[in-house]
Amino acid sequence: MTTRFEDLPYRSCVGMMVLNREGRAFIGRRLNGPEHVDDVHVWQMPQGGVDEGEDLYQAALRELYEETNIRSVEQIGEIEDWLIYDIPRDIVGQAWKGKYRGQKQKWYAFRFTGKDSEIDVAHPGGGEHKPEFAEWRWEPVENLPGLIIPFKRDVYQRVVKDFSPLAK
Q1: Which domain holds residue 155?
Q2: Using CA atoms, how far apart are residues 124 and 94, in angstroms rounded to an integer?
Q3: End-to-end distance of the chain based on CA atoms, in angstroms?
Q4: Which burial class, exposed, middle or buried, applies to 22 when counting CB atoms under 10 A from its CB (0-12, 13-18, 19+)?
Q5: What is the CATH number of the domain that holds 94?
Q6: pLDDT at 140 over 90
Q7: Kind plus residue range of the DSSP H or E element containing 14
Q8: What total number of domains does the chain contain?
Q9: Which of 20, 45, 4 is nearest to 155 (CA)?
């Protein structure tokens, strides 16, 4: 028996807005994924799953390192709510082995205190993790919702609304 889309749970995840000294946000161009719809909406901020029993803040630091090699950060913000999105029904079987209908995300804002040379999306996590991003750049915060795949746009609009004052 197949589980109905509405009965699937949400995957627990953390998202990180990393701001440089100029107030621009780190974004990476995803390497691949079933959600890719075009070449414009392939950019996103770091995010990743939370291991069972893992502290959310520690998960955010771990995922940030595993995706970007970044360790030089200080927390400057947090969204108290879980932000939720559904993935399109037609890709449910391709994402997370069909176990989830989307993600519930806990978002953190970090100030990047290191040098850009610390960032290494080709060899993240000290080279111990498979790359998720093909390239990266610093982007004005207000541009982020227009660069993310459409089904995540509401989450990005909320993150930008809450964290924009930190970019000033």
Answers
A1: 5-167
A2: 24
A3: 52
A4: exposed
A5: 3.90.79.10
A6: yes
A7: strand 10-19
A8: 1
A9: 45
User: For residue 93, what are its two tokens?
Assistant: 């079987």
48: its two tokens: 């990743």
Tens of pLDDT along 15-71? Answer: 999 999 999 999 999 887 655 556 667 899 999 999 999 999 999 999 999 999 999
Helix (H, G, I), strand (E, B) or coil at 145: helix
Phi and psi for 85 in degrees, rounded to 5? -140, 150
Confidence of residue 5 (pLDDT cuts 50, 70, 90): confident
Task: Confirm if 153 and 88 have CB atoms less than 8 A apart.
Answer: no
Beta-sheet pairing, 47-49 with 102-112: unpaired
Residue 2: which pLDDT band, with cuts at 50, 70 and 90?
low
Tokens in use for 83?
């932000």
DSSP letters along 38-52, please? Answer: SSSTTEE--EEEPPT
Between strands 43-44 and 47-49, the pairing is unpaired
Residue with tokens 């080279």: 127
